[in-house]
Amino acid sequence: MTHIVDQITGHRRMRRNRKADWTRRLVQENRLTVDDLIWPVFVVPGTNVLEPIAAMPGVNRMSVDRLVEAAKEAADLGIPALATFPNIAMDLRDQTGSNSLAADNLINQATRALKKHVPSIGVITDVALDPFTDHGHDGILRDGVIVNDETVELVARAAVIQADAGSDIIAPSDMMDGRIGAIRQALDEAGHQDVGIMSYATKFASAFYGPYREAIGTGGLLKGDKKTYYLDPANGTEAMRDAALDVEEGADMLIVKPGLPFLDICWRIKEAFGLPVFAYQVSGEYAQIKAAAMNGWIDGDRVMMETLLAFKRAGCDGIISYFAIEAARALGKQA
């Protein structure tokens, strides 16, 4: 028998492939695995410190010893890498972020401890200056202006010091012009040809960063905004030009930050350059999901997994996410 629906669809029925669990699994186009996850973590001075971050429920600042314990769990879950962010003492912060050049600063202490005690997990370090400055900006501030070239020189030196400490991948997030090429040259001259660069190729002047700034202690320090060096959220073509320059200068991998508001940029960058692309599901994205789930407005676990899968569908090879541990546990239960 032929139904009017057959006449309308020409006997093409999309629901045939959805009729059972096994058929849905058989034709699923994108899959999220633990191999796609990078866990961003916050490091503080001291010993046996575990400080909850109010704006990011479930996320803590950790002293190096507690970070090592957490990294062991992450490695056991199969998470490939951590991205470390320091919250250093206020008396170590200054106009130029000079503590970023200290061989034994907090981020380098964390790297050495992780490589010693959890050698199987990758360590990705950020060389932006905002955790080290007393004004909260990612570069050197002179007469109210973030100076590009001096910042690049300092960031390149800091990258070498981080590589000396054992960092596997340098992730410059400061958005200064020319930083990728300068870092690549500095790393190679120091004998660190094997250390990769995961560039924050398109980092937007977004409203989604608020909880992160609380986490690294820069929220109350920031003077003005970062619009003179971060990308305008309205500009997709400019973002592609920025990414292209980073590729030309030697970036090995590219980051889009934030994630969900810029899925189109993820797709465009992957299609254009073919390099590994990572979305950073930032603190504001995480906090929204957590807050809505805590109020019972959404199924937090399902929304978490759906958003992570969205990045894969948009062409990302992986995701930097505060959900990494939760997602890895969930994926382990599915296996």
Automatic annotation (TrEMBL):
Example of a GO cellular component annotation carried by this entry: cytosol
Residues in the signal sequence: none
A Gene Ontology biological process term: protoporphyrinogen IX biosynthetic process
Keyword field: Heme biosynthesis, Lyase, Porphyrin biosynthesis
Highest taxon, organism lineage: Bacteria
Catalysis performed (reactions): 2 5-aminolevulinate = porphobilinogen + 2 H2O + H(+)
Enzyme class: lyase
One Pfam family linked to the record: ALAD
Pathway involvement of the protein, from the record: Porphyrin-containing compound metabolism; protoporphyrin-IX biosynthesis; coproporphyrinogen-III from 5-aminolevulinate: step 1/4
Residues the record marks as active site: 203, 257
Protein name: Delta-aminolevulinic acid dehydratase
Species assigned in the record: Mycoplana dimorpha
Organism taxonomic ancestry: Bacteria, Pseudomonadati, Pseudomonadota, Alphaproteobacteria, Hyphomicrobiales
